[in-house]
Amino acid sequence: WEHIRTIVEGDTLGGQRRIAIAHDIAPDELLDHVGHGRHRQSIAVRGWAEKNSVLPYNSHKHTGLLRHIVVRESKNDADRMIILVSAPGDVPKDSFIEAVLGAYPATTILRGINATKSDTAFCGSLETWTGSGTITETLHFEDASFKFRISPQSFFQTNTKGAQLLYGLLR
Question: pTM of the predicted model, to two decimals?
Answer without folding.
Answer: 0.77
